[in-house]
């Protein structure tokens, strides 16, 4: 069990990550890809960090990857007693970029670097915003 509800990220229609959050609310993981050099990157931004082009589009990601690194945060005061510790991780997506996220639905003792994972989306306090998190592939 993870602790809920998750806080809502600040999202507005003019935010350069608005398309990312809209896709997440529809259960899709998208990543920015430069139309000039083809570089796929993360976090969502409209400037390519490789060639500095502003010709960037969002493309659908496979939603799978591997755990590149992780850290476990023990329960804070006020959490439900049956809540598992939070697992903060950097996941390397199949498309190449790495994203900071949470690993969910797994005992922290069973998590290892290199484990294959897949995306899932956790709801937030707002009905139209979901947070991409990852769970081990079975």
From TrEMBL:
It comes from the Archaea. Residues 59-121 form the ChsH2 C-terminal OB-fold domain. Transmembrane segments: none annotated. Residues 21-54 form the ChsH2 rubredoxin-like zinc ribbon domain. InterPro entries: ChsH2_C (IPR002878), ChsH2_Znr (IPR022002), NA-bd_OB-fold (IPR012340), Thioester_dehydratase-like (IPR052513). Pfam families: OB_ChsH2_C, zf-ChsH2. This is Zn-ribbon domain-containing OB-fold protein. It comes from Natrinema soli.
